Amino acid sequence: MLIDTHVHLNDNQYEQDIDQVIQRALDAGVERMVVVGFDRPTITRAMELTEKHSFIYAVVGWHPVDAIDCTEEDLQWIEELAAHPKVVGIGETGLDYHWDKSPKEVQQELFRKQIQLAKKVDLPIIIHNRDATADVVQILQEEEAGTTGGIMHCFSGSVETAKQCIDMNFMISLGGPVTFKNAKMPKQVATEIPLEYLLVETDAPYLAPHPHRGKRNEPAYVALVAEQIAELKGISLKEVAQITTQNAMKLFAIN
Q1: Which terminus of the chain has fewer Cβ atoms in its 10 Å neighbourhood, N or C?
Q2: pLDDT, tens digit, for every residue of 72-117?
């Protein structure tokens, strides 16, 4: 049994074949999926999917790229949704300095507000980090985000940064890039970080693992991520599936 801890089944790329995509995931042993909403349309769709499928859960928050569009009403709505029994986290939030739609200070302010919200509603926080590691770590420390903890989503940093995040009560989640031949750091992290701090995800429809790289990703492929971790650690796929699933269920308080 596997849990895809971060998937965007609410993406328009699945409009035509969502039922088949979900069935392929179930057939591949992916028994639970956490769908992440990061703006009004994707949050609404994530909630619809949780109502339709017993094995789908939602994370709700606001993406840093679109921080400039987020209003106080949006944050209030996210807080209200957090009371829903199938909402298991706040996010994805964080910092993204690759795109320049939202100024850094706007992103940072919204990031802090969502950490504070996660602490208020007592849910783990799911962190998006692109080209902003030092600022992400600093804000997590300053806001004492370790009181709720959460996930460093699709982690691409160093072993040292991973350990820093683990010390702040964050899990390290690995996705498709760990299967890429040239992805030295994700492979190092998979090898050196103990399994009890690791999660698996797809971030589908993005970042498809080898041999599907460059194509549309889907949650069934989380098995390929788990297989790569097992190979790097020299342990069985069964053990990786078992421990990462236990980790996810504990973090998200899923029975």
Answers
A1: C
A2: 999 999 999 999 999 999 999 999 999 989 999 999 999 999 999 9
Q: Which of 15, 6, 12 is nearest to 33 (CA)?
A: 6
Quickly count: other Cβ atoms within 10 Å of residue 93's Cβ. Answer: 29
The phi, psi pair for 138, rounded to 5°, reads -60, -45
Q: Are 9 and 222 in contact (CB under 8 A)?
A: no
Segment 193-203, tens digit of pLDDT: 999 999 999 99
Tokens of residue 159, six digits: 């072993």
CA–CA separation, 120 and 1 (whole Å) = 32
Question: How far is it, in rounded angstroms, from Cα 120 to Cα 224?
Answer: 36
The CA distances from residue 140 to 36, 124, 197, in Å, are 20, 12, 18
Task: Using DSSP, state whether 101 is helix, strand or coil.
Answer: coil
Closest Cα to residue 78, out of 52, 50, 115?
A: 115
The region that residue 169 occupies, defined by phi over 0 for left and psi between -120 and 50 for alpha, beta otherwise, is: left
Tokens of 93: 């939030």
